Amino acid sequence: MKVMTVGDVVARLESGMTIGVGGWGSRRKPMALIEGILRSDLTDLTIVSYGGADVGLLCAAGKVRRVVAPFVTLDSIPLEPHFRKARQEGSIAFTEYDEGMFMFGLLAAAHRLPFLPTRAGLGSDVMRVNPELRTVSSPYSDEELVAVPALTMDVALIHLNRADARGNGQYLGPDPYFDDLYAKAARQTFVSCERVVDDLLKEGPLQSLLVSRAMVSGVVEAPGGAWFTSCEPDYPRDEDWQKRYTTTPWQEFIDEPR
């Protein structure tokens, strides 16, 4: 059985780690686990994310050395303010990929490959702002392709609607948000969920079983654990609180009771 607490998960993390955070923008982010990191003394982290408030919170708290992302947004609020401030002040490094390139980086890591080729990024400024990227020639034609390096992570943190005590995870909303790729790409994966149940097939169809227990090191039952981001169909994004997050001075916001 793999049931843990948020504190147990944070105790397994170390400063300097590369941590992948599942979800997308302001949707189904593992916010309970992110808040656990905020309360810790962890620092110098590299965060790999289709970014949202997870990235902004960690940047504002001084936990981040580098962000690897295709975007950092709150969806209904286009620009994540704390990430933007960190970038403008130069307090973090940023590796920015096209969304498709980012997916290929996850796929490469999930399949234990050093890179995967793609056309995404060709002819764009992605190559200019990432001078370390290389191209490869197809062995079957003369075509040049971008060689996207694997986004290998020490740990992945994801939030799902349901899980069982063995580590199988289930999504019930409209989109898996690549959480399965994060779980496969990381050396360890920790899943928070709205509820730990005995029989996942009573909750949803077979196709909703997203993450296998073979990929999961621990499960945290965290009702409301994605709030203030959405976790459909359990609850929508809390737009009022998200707006408050973007307009309240950082220390005042972080000190407010949740």
Overall description:
The chain is of the alpha/beta class. The protein has a single domain (3-115, 152-255), classed as 3-Layer(aba) Sandwich (Glutaconate Coenzyme A-transferase). 27% of the residues lie in helices and 26% in strands. The chain has helices at 6-11, 31-38, 53-60, 81-89, 99-110, 126-129, 179-185, 239-247, 250-255, and strands spanning 3-4, 18-21, 45-49, 64-69, 93-96, 115-118, 134-137, 144-149, 153-163, 169-170, 186-196, 209-211, 218-221. Strands 1, 2, 3, 4, 5, 9, 10, 11, 12 and 13 form a ten-stranded mixed β-sheet that branches. The protein has a three-stranded antiparallel β-sheet with strand order 6-8-7. β9 and β10 (169-170) form a beta hairpin. α3 (53-60) packs across α4. The longest helix is centred in the middle third of the chain and has 12 residues, at 99-110. The two termini are 30 Å apart. 44% of the residues are buried.
Coarse structural class: alpha/beta
Number of helices: 9
CATH class category label: Alpha Beta
- The CATH superfamily name is Glutaconate Coenzyme A-transferase
Shape by Cα distribution? globular
What's the pLDDT, averaged over the residues?
A: 95
What Rg, in angstroms, do the CA atoms define? 18 Å
